[in-house]
Design brief:
It is built from 9 helices and 7 strands. The protein is α/β, with parallel strands linked by helices. The chain has one domain: Spore Coat Polysaccharide Biosynthesis Protein SpsA, Chain A, CATH 3.90.550. A 7-stranded mixed beta sheet has the order 3-2-1-4-6-5-7, sandwiched between helices. Helix 1 runs antiparallel to helix 8. The relative contact order is 0.16.
Length: 230
């Protein structure tokens, strides 16, 4: 059984690297919209038996419950790695054989990408990592909670997770999943999302946002001068 673990920052801290140019209200709304879509994709995947939302934010817990997720509380100042470890421990306690750690900011995540990961895990019987599109971060990590003990999220986490697996004697494979590789951390990510339009709640939120529309207009004007993401 695969249990999904979704660490999610408090909304007042979410998407801080989008400022500037985006306001706190926009960042808060975007974080909630993307979490809705990530949880919906996980819930629609037949290979995911349960979803564990790891957060200290009551508002996000309500969103999680609406998608059938189990809440796992962490300290307000817990980092992503600590939250992933707490969720993984909870997955093991609840009987999960594998834990799939994914962030709540993957606007293009879908059930087919998740099913491919699950199928690859069955074939290889290895831990799996999906790097971010720049090849530096970790956008998904599928592990066995009983054996995986160290999470290394943050700068260069893809390389560090490979090293952690090697040190522990755990076989790990890299999976290329474009829909998982695009996360939203910086303004450039939102600009590039236009080439792969988001649907669901995220698409509705962006489509209705005058702030986002103004950002795209500035990007178009800057492109003519050879400048982007300002």
């Amino acid at each position: 059984m695969i249990f999904a673990v979704v660490p999610a920052k408090r909304l007042d801290l979410a998407k801080g690297r989008l400022s500037p140019p985006f306001s706190p209200g926009f960042r808060r709304g975007l974080a909630k919209a993307m979490l809705h879509d990530v949880l919906a994709a996980l819930r629609s995947c037949s290979n995911v038996s349960r979803i564990i939302l790891v957060t200290s934010d009551p508002e996000l817990e309500v969103i999680g419950h609406g998608h059938g997720a189990v809440s796992c509380s962490v300290d307000a100042d817990a980092g992503y790695s600590a939250a992933a470890a707490a969720g993984c421990k909870e997955a093991e306690r609840l009987g999960g054989e594998q834990a799939l750690i994914v962030p709540g900011d993957l606007p293009r995540l879908d059930a087919r990408s998740l099913d491919r990961l699950a199928g690859l895990a069955r074939i290889t019987d290895k831990a799996l990592v999906v790097p971010s599109r720049d090849g530096q971060g970790t956008n998904a990590l599928l592990v066995r909670p009983a054996t995986w003990r160290q999470f290394c999220f943050g700068p260069e986490s893809y390389r560090r997770h490979l090293a952690c697996a090697a040190e522990a004697g755990i076989e790990i494979a890299t999976a290329d999943e474009p829909r998982i590789a695009l996360d939203i951390d910086q303004p450039c990510d939102l600009r590039d999302l236009q080439g792969y339009p988001a649907s669901g709640v995220t698409g509705e939120f962006l489509g209705a946002s005058m702030e986002f529309c103004a950002f795209l207009e500035r990007q178009a004007a800057s492109a003519e001068q050879g400048e982007l993401c300002r």
